[in-house]
Amino acid sequence: MKNHKLMSAIEVLRYRYRYFNKRKKSAVLEELERLHQVDRKYLIRLLAPSSGGRPKNPKRIGRPSKYTNSVFQSALRRVWKISNFMCGRYLKEAMPEWLPAIEQEYGSFDADTKGKLLSISASTIDRHLREARRERGKSFTRRGSVIRSEIPILGNIWDTNMPGFIECDTVAHCGGSMLGDFINSVTTVDIASTWTEVRATWGRGSSGVIEQLKDIEATVPFELKGYDADNGGEVLNKHVIDYFHNRQIPVSVTRSRAYKKDDNCHVEQKNNSIARKYLGYERLDCQEILSLINHYYKNILCPLLNHFYPSNKLKDKLLVNAKRKRFYDKPKTPYQRIMESSYVSQERKDSLAKIHSKLNPVQLRLEEVKIRNLIDKKMKEFRINRQNKILKNQGFNATNITKVTNPFLAP
């Protein structure tokens, strides 16, 4: 139970106590100890302000920030928005690639603002964007038809510093129901360079998956050396194995352990950051938009992410004081990692550099938004037409049908 007389005295003394010298503070503490029979440390805690110590000087001490003016703040937020809201570490590394394209599309920044955008640190970017920053899918992986003992589990048999060893997985755009057919995204990621390719296929048959794997293999700037998948029957079956083994230089095929998603951690992360982030969780069961989605993936989204969006890679993990400390390399784009790799031929590098010189990140970003909105529009029209057709078959007249809207799509 609190001593009300003590608390009343504390309220009276708290403000003045801050400005007493050491001798006066000691005298006040001794008097309160004698009168109320309480511990000295307890009294010190009661007399201290909530923040502790003397009241802080409201004025910031030290060199004033050079990034607080409204022109720079507006420019930083504009670059951040156009680049699809990168974090500070990635935006810092991507700034030299994005700034010329942004200036070409929207006009030049003044020299002072441009210099600040190029010199600002990653942590300062995050700090200045802090105020501007303020559903989950189901797993439908089917057990593979291939006997598991025939496929080795990926251990330390790959050289993950060499481009060409890929992980593969699928994302079901089923909207939570596996009834009927729908579009699936086939995602592959190279472990060494983080180069990612995504394609769409209708249904979960092996022929559609192999067709997209062939297209991916023809697109990536390196030779395939290894293929690793989970135990799902759509990405690990006899047809897929024959496709990789029946060639002049066979590609090694491995699998992850059952129910261990961390074994396929690279591609699982890309499933979320690409397929789910850009196409969402709704059901895509309109076969007519399959070619549009493949155009979106192949010619717009993947070039944008592989050439202009940096990512960092884990270098090492150490156990320090019973805590796992992780060390990451400097953020780089997959394109930069390919160009720096000694395992990729110069001919492939020259071809990739020629493609890179023709790409504009701002134009790709604008086209990406345009095509994504077109996909949403076509899906909305498809659902409304399908619903109207069902209602017509149930005997509704044409005037009633025209008033029907899709209850599952918010206006």
Per CATH, the superfamily of the domain at 148-299 and 346-354 is Ribonuclease H-like superfamily/Ribonuclease H
Strand percentage: 5-15%
Compressed to H and E, one letter per element, the order equals HHHHHHHEEEHEHEHHEEHHHH
The total strand number stands at 7
At CATH level 3, the topology of the domain at 148-299 and 346-354 is Nucleotidyltransferase, domain 5
Shape: elongated
CATH top-level class of the domain at 148-299 and 346-354: Alpha Beta
Provide the gyration radius in Å. 30 Å
Could you give a short account of the major beta sheet?
Answer: 5 strands, mixed
Biggest sheet strand order reads 3-2-1-4-5
The share of residues in helices is 40-55%
Gap between N and C termini, in Å? 58 Å
The number of helical runs is: 15
Average pLDDT figure: 84
Give the structural class: alpha/beta
CATH architecture of the domain at 148-299 and 346-354: 2-Layer Sandwich
How would you name the oligomeric state of the polypeptide chains in this document?
Answer: single chain
Which residues form runs of ≥5 with pLDDT under 50?
Answer: 51-55, 401-411
Provide an overview of this structure:
Helix 5 (88-106) crosses helix 7 and helix 11 (290-308) packs antiparallel against helix 14. The radius of gyration is 30 Å and the shape is elongated. The longest helix is centred in the C-terminal third of the chain and has 33 residues, at 361-393. Helix 9 (238-245) links the parallel strand 4 (226-229) and strand 5. With 411 residues, it is α/β, with parallel strands linked by helices. Residues 51-55 and 401-411 have low confidence and may be disordered. Among the domains are: 4-47; 70-128, no CATH class; 148-299 and 346-354, Nucleotidyltransferase, domain 5. The chain has 15 helices and seven strands. Strands 3-2-1-4-5 form a five-stranded mixed β-sheet, with helices on both faces. The chain has a two-stranded antiparallel sheet with strand order 6-7.
